[in-house]
Design a protein that fits this description.
The protein has helices at about 15-35, 45-50, 55-70, 90-100, 105-110, 110-120, 125-130, 130-140, 155-170, 215-225, 245-255, 255-270, 275-300, 305-330, and strands at about 5-10, 35-40, 80-85, 145-150, 180. By secondary structure, the chain is mainly α. Strands 1-2-3 form a three-stranded parallel β-sheet. A two-stranded parallel sheet has the order 4-5. Strand 1 (about 5-10), helix 1 (about 15-35) and strand 2 form a beta-alpha-beta unit.
């Protein structure tokens, strides 16, 4: 039997290159491997934990993220694409799992702590936001996922789920599968910096990303803004590679490694301007994104088809979730009738 794979994204904005190299390319490879029964979802409930005052933003981005999924090659015949809020069992599972985790443990979650600082909640942390790792445990376990593809920054979230699963199984018997994190194979792809540099990862909330839907003009403009070397003031000056976002991107995306090595050597000894390096990066990225952009444009002409894909995927996910919920209710002795 094939293993079960579960992953997803918050529909709080279009997907960017960080998602592409950190998760989407990996999902495609896993989908095509034939080894997994793949579930990929749009986490609208999780998105509402910090977008509760702007629900229309979340609703609008359901279509945008689904377009990104289909444009990069996720196939609804091979991968179940679904909307989190349409899975009726998830809130009930979350309530049961909340009994198995302490408030102090939730507050110690490194991923949550980082996001709380980024969003500036201070002492006014919404309870839903603090508890979303428990909701995520419900997402992972409803389909009895064996593996969850994530970036390194999400490892604490998977460990939180594993703790909940271990506690549940210890108390109620072996009901839930213990999921494993599956990291991207490309080391650099695990943390793609934003275009502003400073080692800040690409993020929708920080608005420092290159999006899959960006047209050529926008792509070129964003690359021109990219952080390079503040000491490289003149073309003849020797340049530095450390912290240079343009070369970080070339390491990830350029297939001609010999040309990248040549550019690095020239840049370090001086005589190579930032504009020329950025123009080369534009050629590399545009070649990668052009077919995705074109497929996305075609799919956007028929939003009804895209939403039907999500409706059918959600129906299948619901069937799977109801089976798991029945097992959980039986284990905790509330299967009365």
């Amino acid at each position: 039997m094939r293993k079960v794979l579960l992953t997803g994204d918050r529909p709080s904005g279009q997907l960017h290159l960080g998602h592409y190299v950190g998760s989407l390319k990996n999902r495609l490879a896993l989908q095509e491997s034939g080894e997994y029964d793949c579930f990929v979802f749009l986490a609208d409930v999780q998105a509402l934990t910090d977008n509760f005052a702007t629900p229309q933003k979340v609703r609008d981005n359901i279509l945008e993220v689904a377009l990104d999924y289909l444009a990069v090659g996720l196939d609804p015949q091979k991968t179940t694409l679904f909307i989190q809020s349409l899975i009726r069992a998830l809130p009930e599972l979350t309530v049961y799992y909340l009994n198995l985790v302490t408030l102090a443990r939730l507050e110690r979650n490194p991923t949550v702590k980082t996001e709380i600082a980024q969003k500036g909640f201070g002492a006014s942390i919404p309870a839903g936001f603090l508890c979303y790792p428990v909701s995520q445990a419900a997402d992972i376990t409803f389909c009895q996922a064996d593996v969850v593809p994530v970036g390194v920054d999400q490892l604490p979230m998977i460990e939180q789920t594993r703790e909940i699963v271990r506690s549940f199984n210890q108390i109620y018997g072996e009901v839930l599968k213990l999921p494993e994190a599956l990291l991207p194979s490309e080391g650099l792809a695990q943390r793609l910096p934003g275009i502003t540099g400073n080692d800040t990862k690409m993020s929708k909330s920080l608005d420092n990303g290159i999006y899959l839907a960006d047209d050529e003009k926008t792509l070129r403009a964003k690359i021109r803004q990219m952080y390079t070397d503040p000491l490289h003031l003149r073309v003849e000056d020797p340049g530095h590679l450390e912290g240079n976002t343009v070369f970080t991107y070339l390491d990830v995306f350029a297939s001609d490694k010999a040309e990248v090595a040549r550019l690095k050597e020239h840049y370090q000894r001086g005589g190579l301007g930032d504009v020329k390096v950025k123009d080369y990066l534009f050629e590399v990225l545009n070649a990668e994104l052009k077919p995705i952009r074109e497929r996305r444009t075609e799919l956007a002409k028929d939003p009804g088809y895209v939403m039907q894909v999500l409706k059918e995927g959600s129906a299948r996910a619901n069937e799977v979730a109801e089976e798991t919920l029945a097992q959980v209710r039986r284990a905790i002795c509330i299967d009365y009738f």
